[in-house]
Amino acid sequence: MVNNSDFTRRGLLATAGALAVTSTWALGDDMPMFDDSKPTKGIAIPSAQHIQEMDAAPLIMKTVNKLWNDSPTIKEPNALQFTPSGTLIILDQVDPNKVFEVTPTTGKILRTVQTESIHGSGITIGDKGAWWITSTQSPVGENTPMTLMVDPQTGKTLKKWVTPGWGFYGPERAPRAGRPAALPSGGHDVKWAGHGQYWMAVPASRRIFLMEGETGKIVRSIPAPVNRTHGLAIDGNYLWSVAADFYQIQKLDSKTGKILAKIQLDKNTDPSIHGLEIKNGVLWYCDANKGWVCNLT
Asked: What is the CATH number of domain 57-296?
């Protein structure tokens, strides 16, 4: 188990039993090498460094606009992505997952596609139109969380890869009486970066990975600032990242992962933050708990 006080980027592997990863780091990088056959365990973040970054980051004031709620048809919207034509696709977390294409401002459903994803948590559109869906649980017939390349017309899986760094996120905990055993988790969101690559947040690994779309191989990664990194949005050279455990949306340097700014939402009055997207400089998000789609102005 890693304690916040002794968690540092280069000290990560010095803590015995902290991770189910190999003992080497990528040369000249801070990225650990993950063993896809074993779950990652015991990473307790944010580190003191990230707490300091969060505290020091400028606060950007925004108003949450609750646009529409299609529940129970779209009961648990967990990810969203604008299409090239300007419509919005929504990934519903209800298993097996459906994708709804909707009119962004009203939620009018234009079409529905049934996929093979289970407990999907992220969706994006590749250069040639295919969808990439990542999920927190294993597809039927598999025993590890996976990322799927999906036909956008039929919903059939074209390719699939084990999600790097999958496992149990946060500090290790003893089993709790009367409660089911914790399940390992996979990816929380994906966003297409262009040039055949996408960003993917994997909370158990404490990383946000830049991935090769056609091979599922890691290009590089940056440290995730919090335990529950959820939605992602790409804004030029920056990433917006949902820090669900702090009810924040954070602006990150996509080269280092440093927190540059933050938007603070109200846990008591604002819908929960899960999926994230950006269009014309405006951030959009969805709430898998109560079904809301919102934007920030």
From this structure: 2.120.10.30
